[in-house]
Design goal:
Chain A: Keywords: Cell cycle, Cell division, Cell membrane, Cell shape, Cell wall biogenesis/degradation, Magnesium, Membrane, Metal-binding, Peptidoglycan synthesis, Transferase, Transmembrane, Transmembrane helix. Chain A: Belongs to the glycosyltransferase 4 family. MraY subfamily. Chain A: It is a multi-pass membrane protein. Chain A: It is found in: Cell membrane; Membrane. The complex is a heterodimer of chains A (371) and B (244). With 371 residues, chain A is mainly alpha-helical. Chain A has helices at 2-31, 38-44, 47-50, 61-74, 78-104, 113-122, 126-146, 158-179, 203-221, 227-246, 249-269, 278-295, 302-305, 307-326, 336-343, 347-369, and strands at 186-187, 197-198. Chain A has a two-stranded antiparallel ribbon. Chain B has 244 residues and is α+β, with helices and mostly antiparallel strands. Chain B has 8 helices and 10 strands. Chain B is globular and about 55 Å long. Classes of the chains: A mainly alpha (371), B alpha+beta (244). Chains A and B meet through helix 14 of A and helix 2 of B.
């Protein structure tokens, strides 16, 4: 009972701090013009989106800062807190820089594959030609990765983002593999008699992939007012319940702190949003969701805890494959929430239904976690 | 005696001539993928079917807050062109062949011969996008008929040395089987505001003469030039081709 009581207390403290800080953060963001640009919204199209222009972004800072502040001051444990908080802050910083560059940065000139190919043949110096021959494969990879980006002109490019997220994943894998102890190397499986599955070093690339995928999935889902925030609440809610069962107070309190901050954030983010999460929040919290699930040894149920995020992620992947491979459009627009928007569903309906679906998936994940 | 394309092919042509957008009937404009984009939506490469063009136009209109219902057909055509929607000549014919011959047979046609193995492999998945005029009229897919007088609906007229192609929609013969006229259909950018999917007619005036010596009837209001006919005079490989 003590663990539940302590978690609820931290949830309330975190929410209170969030509610107190939110108006201040909003004023700061407005003052420094950290707001949604009209042209970005125009690109996404219709009426409902154009109204979002001028809304402050980087509202996710609220959750990141409140969580980090409370954890560092009141819930710090060297073994369990360093990596989740560190990796979250690293990803949030990456997202924050991207947010700022998207607003204040200049359009970046990136050499296309064709240009690099041409330069590798016509550059006046031998070394120049050789250099362009060496970087040509990287230019090709960059070209393919560009397909996954939505605003490749400004900010951090997709390949750069993925590389930095790879580092975040690597840090998590190192922590789990070399620091947490042998029991963490056994991947928990529901209904398993022997406690889990030992996949050896294969766990490292899997962890890296999971961290990268989850961070980007949350980022993709952050496209409608309240969607990412509400869905994250249920995701971390599932993790909180699991940490109660596991009896890990540090994780329980950390999950509760995130939920409290998310409640405050979502209160201000539901339509019409007073601020938007931005990459600072979505990448940071997406990474944290993955890291906490990995740390609580529940990798298998991560697709249930972040059900909507993964549905959104796969809708983008499928759309890219269908579009570029077969020349067809599977959804009217990806990620999936835009498809329903274009179908004429009101934003509130999409968000509420996605919350419910994620809640049900989390319930299934929590149930599986008990077996 | 009149011979026409099969009804399902005629239906496709009608759909191209009467795209239903904003409750209005719009002739599909001409669009060619000059940027050389390979991977992308078929409909944005000038190769879409009528329904794909309609769906994409409605989607783009929603994105851009354009009320198609409030636009005149001419403005809707402008909107389509600006949005990169339309059909090129080979895409138009391939989409007709798809309903005439079936998807399986069209997939078996020899696509554009790329040098890259990967490109060749990928092209098999997207035949419509990879059947250019050259590919449609190459020796693997079709052969040039010896006597233009033997032409029949479904034959293709190659012009401008393989840069443009027309499809014979209808032939008229007298009771003794002599060819009187050919009606063709094509998607062309040659006629200014009247470009896009349109018909033309060849009246046989010299049955023993060459195809070039017949009376080609197609011109736009403004220039009064028959650019399709001029294209026929441009090149040695021009002529009538029949799918094998």
């Amino acid at each position: 009972m003590a663990i539940i009581s302590q978690s609820i207390l931290f949830l309330l403290i975190s929410a209170l701090l969030g509610f107190l800080c939110a108006p201040v953060l909003r004023q700061v963001l407005i003052k420094y013009r950290v707001v949604r640009e009209a042209k970005i919204e125009d690109k996404l199209g219709h009426e409902t989106r154009i109204n979002k222009a001028g809304t402050p972004v980087m509202g996710g800072l609220l959750v990141i800062l409140v969580t980090a502040f409370i954890t560092v001051l009141f819930n710090w444990d060297r073994s369990f807190s360093w990596v989740p908080i560190g990796v979250m802050l690293f990803s949030a910083a990456l997202g924050g820089v991207d947010d700022l560059l998207n607003i204040f940065g200049r359009k970046r000139r990136i050499r296309s594959v064709t240009l690099v190919k041409t330069l590798s043949k016509v550059h006046k110096g031998l070394w120049g030609r050789l250099w362009y021959k060496i970087v040509l494969p990287f230019a090709r990879i960059r070209g393919y990765l560009k397909l996954l980006g939505s605003n490749p002109g400004k900010g951090i490019q997709v390949h750069e983002k993925l590389f930095l997220q790879f580092l975040a994943g690597l840090a998590t894998a190192w922590w789990l593999f070399f620091k947490l102890g042998p029991q963490w190397k056994l991947v928990w499986l529901p209904f398993s008699q022997n406690g889990g599955l030992d996949i050896g070093w294969l766990l490292i690339p899997i962890i890296i992939l999971i961290v990268m995928a989850t961070a980007n999935a949350v980022n993709l889902a952050d496209g409608l007012d309240g969607l990412a925030g509400g869905t994250l609440i249920s995701g971390f809610g599932g993790l909180l319940i699991i940490s109660w069962f596991q009896g890990n107070t540090v994780f329980a309190v950390l999950n509760a702190t995130v939920i409290g901050a998310l409640l405050a954030y979502t209160y201000f983010n539901i339509k019409p949003a007073r601020f938007q999460m931005g990459d600072v929040g979505s990448l940071g919290l997406g990474t944290l969701l993955a890291v906490m699930t990995i740390a609580q040894n529940r990798i298998i149920i991560l697709p249930l805890l972040g059900f909507i995020f993964f549905v959104e992620l796969f809708s983008v992947i499928i759309q890219v494959i269908a579009r570029h491979g077969f020349g067809k459009r599977l959804f009217l627009m990806a990620p999936l929430h835009h498809h329903f928007e274009l179908k004429g569903w009101p934003e509130e309906k999409i968000v509420a239904r996605f919350w419910i679906l994620n809640g049900l998936a989390v319930a299934l994940g929590a149930w599986l976690s008990l077996h | 005696m009149t011979k026409k394309l099969p009804q399902q092919a005629l239906d496709v042509i009608e759909r191209y001539k009467n795209l239903n957008l904003g409750g209005k009937k719009v002739v599909c404009p001409y669009f060619i993928n000059t940027a050389g984009v390979r991977a992308g939506l078929k409909v944005m490469l000038g190769k879409g079917s009528p329904s794909e063009i309609e769906e994409e136009a409605i989607l783009i209109a929603k994105h851009d807050n354009v009320a198609l219902e409030d636009l005149e057909p001419a403005h809707i055509r402008e909107f389509l062109k600006k949005s990169g929607l339309g059909i090129d000549c080979s895409g138009f014919i391939t989409n007709i062949l798809l309903v005439m011959l079936g998807e399986k047979k069209v997939k078996n046609l020899a696509v554009t011969a790329y040098t890259s193995i990967i490109r060749r492999f990928l092209a098999k998945f997207r035949p419509v996008e990879n059947l250019s005029v050259q590919a449609l009229t190459n020796s693997k897919n079709s052969s040039k008929i010896d006597r233009w007088q033997d032409s029949m609906p479904g034959d293709m007229i190659k012009t401008r040395s393989g840069k443009h192609v027309l499809l014979i929609e209808e032939t008229e013969r007298n009771s003794s089987g002599e060819l009187l006229a050919i009606t063709y259909i094509h998607s062309t950018n040659a006629y200014g505001n009247e470009s896009g999917v349109r018909n033309g007619k060849v009246i046989v005036v010299r049955p023993a003469g060459t195809l070039e010596e017949q009376n080609w009837q197609e011109s736009d209001e403004a220039s009064r030039r028959n650019i399709t006919y001029e294209g026929l005079l441009d090149g040695e490989t021009n002529g009538i081709y029949r799918l094998l």
